[in-house]
Design brief:
With 307 residues, the chain is α/β, with parallel strands linked by helices. The chain is built from ten helices and eight strands. It has two domains: 139 residues, no CATH class; 113 residues, 3-Layer(aba) Sandwich (Trna Endonuclease, Chain: A, domain 1). It binds iron/sulfur cluster. Iron/sulfur cluster binds next to helix 2.
């Protein structure tokens, strides 16, 4: 098998990590490289393990996305499913994942077995907080079944569904752009509707991310921007909130311009600013000066920022 190459590529989540803290970005995308191999350096192995962990704030999103995919697949295959059954299945999965995490099973296969930062870093978390995590997932799944996007997808019928959580790529100026739209379908009004399920609070970054999905639909699916609708569906509140992000040719061109700028920003920090070699030195990616960010970061022990 050919050696894996750490190719320079871009995704919204990659840039978010960089904006949060340049060192976190380096840890995740460069320092951890090769850490899946026991012959890799100890540092790479530790960073690889840490980068694959979830925590009590990100775990609900993972569970919700997994469950949304399973629900849509159930419907496609004609299996009976409702909110109660989906919640029961998600909670069972969470109980199993939690038990495996407590036992440290993720250490043997960090990518395949879910582990939680709280267990790895032996953080003391009140039982009430874990209960709230489960309640958030329950609310999100109920809202999934209640939201308008779900109704529209059912009205359109499975034959009109275009993709469920499928990782995809397209090129921008020779750089690979990775995206993973949660769901897309052709709705009964004749639009291609791209939907992203969210468990956090509405923010501008979500809008930027979904315009990137529209750029993919234009470039790869050859859809006209005027025929694309992009919707963010926030599921963790008392009721679902749907936010439509306007899509136009101008919005997609602006996204491309912004993305080129972000790629340049990171490329400048690489050795010789050489995207082709894609070598990054730790010292060129400084630790954040905002210490408060470190409290919830999985790298706080390796950075010496453990409170
Ligand atoms: S612990 Fe702080 S400095 Fe280190 S990677 Fe995380 S946010 Fe950055």
């Amino acid at each position: 098998m050919a050696d894996l190459v750490n190719e320079f590529s871009w995704s919204n989540s990659k840039y978010s990590a960089y904006e949060y803290c340049a060192r976190a970005f380096w840890n995740k995308h460069y320092g951890s490289w090769g850490g899946w191999d026991s012959r890799g350096s100890k540092e790479a192995q530790q960073l690889y393990l840490l980068k694959n962990l979830k925590n009590r704030r990100t775990w609900p999103g993972t569970v919700l996305h997994d469950e949304a995919r399973l629900v849509l697949q159930d419907i496609m295959h004609g299996r009976e499913i409702d909110a109660d059954k989906a919640i029961e299945r998600a909670k069972l999965r969470m109980r199993q994942q939690f038990a495996f995490s407590v036992a440290g099973a993720y250490r043997a296969s960090p990518k395949k077995t879910l582990g939680l930062v709280e267990h790895e870093l032996k953080e003391v978390v009140a039982k009430k907080e874990w209960t709230e995590v489960a309640q958030k997932v329950e609310r999100a799944i109920r809202n999934l079944f209640d939201c308008d996007a779900f109704s529209r997808a059912l009205s359109a019928g499975c034959a009109a569904w275009r993709g469920i959580e499928s990782k995809a790529e397209f090129m921008l100026d020779g750089i690979r752009i990775w995206i993973e739209p949660d769901f897309a379908f052709s709705n009964i009004d004749g639009y291609v509707e791209v939907v992203d399920w969210k468990t956090g609070k509405p923010n501008e970054d979500d809008a930027r991310q979904i315009v990137g999905y529209a750029a993919f639909a234009e470039k790869v699916w050859k859809e006209s921007p005027w025929d694309i609708q992009a919707r963010l569906v926030y599921l963790s509140g008392e009721e679902p909130i749907e936010v439509e992000v306007p899509i136009s040719s101008a919005a997609i061109r602006q996204w491309e311009t912004d993305t080129r700028g972000k790629i340049d920003e990171i490329a400048k920090l690489l050795v010789g600013a050489d995207i082709g070699r894609n070598l990054a030195r730790k010292q060129d990616f400084p630790m954040t000066e905002h210490i408060s960010k470190c409290a919830g970061c999985e790298y706080r022990v390796v950075c010496g920022r453990q409170a």
